[in-house]
Amino acid sequence: MKSRGLIQNPGFVRALIFISVITGIFLASNFLILGGDAFFNLSNTLISPAAALSASFLFYQVWRNKKFTNARALWSGMALGFGLWGLADVIWAFYSVVLGVTVPYPSIADLLWVIGYIPLYFALITRLRTLKTVPTRRQQLLIILLNIPWIVLTAVYILPPIVQDFDLSRLVEGVVNILYPLADVGLVIIACMILILLKEGRFAIIWRLIFSGIFIMTVSDLLFSYSTWQGLYYPDDRVNALTIFIDTTYTLAYICAGFGIYVYQLIWNLDEKFDISIETMPSPRYYAFVGTNQEHQIITVGDNFFCLVNGGLSTNYAKQRLDKVLGVGSISFQALIEKIKSHEMICNEPFTIVTTDRQDRKVWITAIAVFNPGREFAGANFALSADIEVGDNLRLPAGKEIQEMLNYLLTSAGSRPEDEIQTMRVYFLEIIRLLSSILYQFGGANIRAALFDEINHKIQQMHLPVKINSQVISLPELQEGKDLASLLLPMLHAARVYTTEIIGEHIVNDGIEELEKQLSETAQRDLDKYKLLAFHAAQ
After folding, report:
1. Alpha-carbon distance 361 to 352, whole Å?
2. Are residues 67 and 159 in the same domain?
3. What is the layout of strands, in order, in the sheet containing 377-386?
4. Beta pairing partners, 281
5. CA angle (523, 492, 430) in 5-degree steps
């Protein structure tokens, strides 16, 4: 099923048209030097702080949005760094335009520019560390080749004249002169590494826009440092090709990063309510009750117990040993009893019995130990559950007193495995809702529908007992967490792989990790027990 993807998102289209028009006018004005050299200088002096502060505000909006707590360090660094640089540009513009004087050097503007490097470095290093990607040999070579020109430019053409001109009587000026190119080349290297290590995905361009802005910005700064020392920037107050390139790329860097973070914010504003639910497919459920004494002899039994062992309706089980009635070996039965004694209760413990007609039958045992006043073991009460085809009148014991004992037993023992199963079902739903919403924001209903086609394909490929009908996923009724996990994991893998191919790995993983941060410690422990939390780490 094909889709044009992000271009179908109305918000993105409007933003793209707006930014294209504004950028087109800006580029035409700069490259054609409309209005002459003086207007070129004035317009670029005023536009750059506006672009920087706008980008800073967009990063700030994402930072304060609780949806994006997973990358708050990144967004705060970008917002603060661009904000400081924007304020520095404002001070520069104030000196140049309002006061009409040469900007003193170093000035408060330089202080803000230098400080601005700190949060930007913090942001880029944070993103680089969260990529968790080891570069291949090809990527390593590409990183080296792309960074050599900027390292050579800095080491050979920028730093030597600065060092030669270094004067201890102008210590602050000399330090600032050295700091600028060193800080810029460091940012270039890190930004270049991030751009190369970003995984593929049709919409990974969003991340590339953000970090391309940083890359372009620092390249522009390096060329600015070089051209000013060589007297090539605004020579004789005239605009030349190098000046046009430096001033244009400087503003374009802010536009590029700002547009990238705007689109990132746009796709996470998941206004579309997509309702999807899980229903349990009917499965026969049968419960029997048995009470035993300290010798494991049956003293109380429900009237439907015979169904469990395929016995006769009139069979009298009183005073018979439970292990003999269930057809189990003494070693396995004794291990079960010891577990009941030590824990005082067990819940939904899987166990295999042998019926009177020699058939193995899987049952789930919930039991509570009974102790006398001296805390000596005096027996146990058992609730035994199984998937058995029986009539509705035999699903539960008929006697009211036995039913009350059965209900008390199940309630008192708790339902921990059932809680695990519910946690897994809810987690599965939330992940599918998240991926569905991301796909819808990027590509509309068609691309979202294709997600369920992928899940359905995996179901058919692996012959899973799962059905997808419209927005309802039907799962079999299961009592063991590992059985449910074996169904959910393949579907989660299929959903993640498809969404990653369309969107890009980092956006998908950021969303999943953000969702998982909201889980309680108990839920995280339950999910990790069955390796569900690690499903998106696999390639």
Report:
1. 6
2. yes
3. 298-301, 286-293, 377-386, 360-371, 345-354
4. 476
5. 50
Give burial (CB, 10 Å; 0-12/13-18/19+) of 478: buried
CATH number of the domain within which 347 lies: 3.30.450.20
Q: Locate tokens 């000026």: which residue?
A: 173
Higher pLDDT, 210 or 12: 210
Q: Decide if 448 is inside a domain.
A: yes
Distance CA 313, CA 304 (A): 8
Query: Are 306 and 367 found together in one domain?
Result: yes
Decide which of 414, 443, 468 is a domain's last residue.
414
Output the DSSP codes for 354-402. Answer: E-TTS-EEEEEEEEEEEE-TTS-EEEEEEEEEE-----GGGSS-S-HHH
**Contact in structure between 204 and 198 (CB atoms under 8 Å):** yes
Cβ pair 347, 368 in contact under 8 A = no
pTM of the predicted protein model: 0.60
The pLDDT, as a whole number, for residue 3 is 38
Please classify residue 4 by burial: count the beta carbons closer than 10 Å to its beta carbon, then call 0-12 exposed, 13-18 middle and 19+ buried: exposed
- The per-residue pLDDT for 292 is 95
Question: In terms of residue numbers, what domain contains 315?
Answer: 281-414
Quick one: DSSP state of residue 158? I
Same domain, 391 and 522: no
Claim to verify: residue 172 and residue 223 sit in the same structural domain: yes
Nearest to 384 by CA among 367, 402, 403: 367
Q: Say if residue 341 is in the same domain as residue 464.
A: no
For residue 276, give the nearest of 444, 433, 421, 477 by alpha carbon: 433
Backbone φ and ψ of 65, nearest 5°: -80, 125
**Which of 414, 448, 480 is at the close of a domain?**
414
| Token pair in block for residue 218 | 């620092």
Domain annotation covers residue 3: no
* 380 and 461 in a common domain: no
Task: Please enumerate in sequence order all residues whose Cβ is within 8 A of that of 425, keeping only pairs 6 or more positions apart, or say none.
Answer: 278, 475, 484
| Helix (H) / strand (E) containing 189 | helix 171-197
Please, which pLDDT band fits residue 132 given cuts at 50, 70 and 90?
low
In degrees to the nearest 10, what's the CA dihedral of 524, 280, 468, 6?
-40
Those residues whose C-beta lies under 8 Å from the C-beta of residue 419, and which sit 6 or more positions away, are 526
Residue with tokens 């390593």, as numbered in its chain: 140
Number of independent structural domains in the chain: 3
Please check whether residues 197 and 290 belong to one and the same domain.
Answer: no
Pairing of strands 377-386, 467-469: unpaired
Determine how β-strand 377-386 pairs with β-strand 298-301. unpaired
Q: Label residue 72 by pLDDT band (50, 70, 90).
A: confident
Residue 474 lies in a domain: yes
The verdict on residue 154 lying in a domain is: yes
Q: How far is CA 53 from the centre of its chain?
A: 29
For residue range 291-342, list pLDDT tens digits in order: 999 999 999 999 999 999 998 888 889 999 999 999 999 999 999 999 999 9
Q: Is 329 helix (H, G, I), strand (E, B) or coil?
A: coil
Residues 171 and 313 grouped into a single domain: no
| Distance from C-alpha of 518 to C-alpha of 432, rounded to nearest angstrom | 16
